[in-house]
Design goal:
Length: 161
């Protein structure tokens, strides 16, 4: 029997449900048996976007991570997440799928979704939007993603090269 996990989040007023079924790549959902594909973020980055997974490092487990979390399991970082999403929308980057490649990166298990990191990401995105709008925000997301690759097991502080 396949193991199933279900997570619900809200995008504006629309409930979005993430359904993962272990050991099944394709499965039918709903009364109409809509065929869906099950792919991990790591597989999405490597297979769909062509991003190479970083080389193995001792003590580091690489995961595909959202630089800007899609939902929070607790409310502690909500103000930073809300602020970041508002800024993204204000520069024309509110469409989730349109900017997915820039919102994903490989990172170690630690440091991506901490309150400190979310606060620093919000500040970096705010600064980028004020400096150069949409293009600068996309560049900043790329730089934050590169930062996570170079700084394993640490919390993003907002300092970029």
């Amino acid at each position: 029997m396949a193991h199933t996990t279900i997570a619900t989040r809200f995008e504006s007023d629309i409930a979005v449900v993430n359904l993962k079924v272990r050991d099944l790549a394709n499965f039918a959902v709903g009364a109409d048996s809509l065929l869906v594909h099950n792919i991990s973020w790591c597989d999405y980055l490597t297979r769909v976007l062509g991003v190479a997974k970083p080389p193995a490092l001792e003590g580091v487990v690489w995961h595909a991570r959202h630089i800007i979390p899609q939902f929070l399991e607790n409310k502690a970082g909500y103000e930073f997440l809300k602020k970041t999403k508002e800024i993204m929308a204000s520069v024309g980057l509110g469409n989730y799928l349109e900017t997915l490649p820039q919102k994903l990166c490989f990172a170690s298990q630690k440091g991506v979704h901490t309150i400190e990191s979310m606060k620093a990401v919000a500040k970096a995105i705010e600064t980028a939007a004020a400096k150069g709008g949409k293009i600068e925000v996309l560049r900043t997301l790329d730089r934050i993603g590169a930062w996570f690759l170079d700084n394993t097991n640490t919390v993003f502080t907002g300092i970029l090269k």
